[in-house]
Design goal:
The chain has about 190 residues and is an alpha+beta fold. Helix content is about 35%, strand content about 30%. The protein has four helices and nine strands. The protein has helices spanning about 5-40, 80-85, 110-125, 160-175; strands spanning about 45-50, 55-60, 65-70, 75-80, 85-90, 95-105, 125-130, 135-140, 145-155. The strands form two sheets. The protein has a five-stranded antiparallel β-sheet. Strands 6, 7, 8 and 9 form a four-stranded antiparallel β-sheet that branches. Strand 1 and strand 2 (about 55-60) form a beta hairpin. Helix 3 (about 110-125) packs across helix 4. The longest helix has about 35 residues, at about 5-40. The chain is elongated.
């Protein structure tokens, strides 16, 4: 044809390189989609946290995963991003542990506070006694307060209901027992010379 083959090879090679570079993102998303499909770290309907994004998985395609946030925003995430990130699947198991902290003043009776926290958790009908019973202990002596850590189990679907209920119920129980919930304070001493 009268065209030097070295020029044709160079043109074809350059075109191939350009196409390869332009498809790089799509190919990595495709590979990520295959990984998600094969290994199933999450399914449609699961609540996940990944790469600073959290919400319920609405759909999984070969290139993208669509997630709806709790306030109903739709986020389309490239599968390459998800497959290369840490994924926390909050709904993978039937039960979940609710970890909370509560602060009380240094004048509060520790045993009474502990008893109120345990009693409040045990009275909540959504709190389970398995795999372990509710737990409440002093976890820290803070600048302005004693910090109690509580742990209890519930069905995964009841997690946020238990979280909010316990926050309200503990406040009511502390008020009845006249246990003070402190706020940060600073004492200032003035010296006169």
């Amino acid at each position: 044809m009268g065209v030097p083959m070295s020029s044709m090879v160079a043109v074809i090679g350059s075109a191939g390189l350009a196409v390869g570079l332009s498809l790089q993102g799509s190919l990595s998303n495709f590979a990520g989609g295959l990984m998600i499909t094969i290994f199933r770290p999450f399914n449609v309907g699961d609540y996940i946290i990944t790469d600073g994004i959290e919400g319920t998985v609405n759909s999984i395609s070969i290139l993208y995963t669509v997630i709806f946030t709790p306030d109903n925003k739709q986020i389309t995430v490239p599968n390459a991003t998800i497959s290369n990130s840490v994924i926390t699947n909050c709904t993978a198991e039937k039960t979940r542990r609710v970890d909370m902290t509560f602060t009380v003043s240094y004048s509060a009776d520790i045993e009474l506070t502990r008893h109120i926290l345990l009693d409040t958790m045990k009275k909540n009908p959504l709190v389970l006694d398995k795999p372990t019973e509710p737990f409440a202990r002093v976890s820290k002596h803070d600048d302005s307060a004693i910090v109690f850590t509580t742990k209890c189990w519930c069905n995964t679907s009841d997690y946020w209901t238990v979280w909010y209920d316990l926050n309200e119920q503990v406040k009511v129980a502390f008020d009845k027992a006249e246990i003070e919930i402190p706020f940060p304070q600073m004492d200032i001493h003035v010296k006169k010379d």
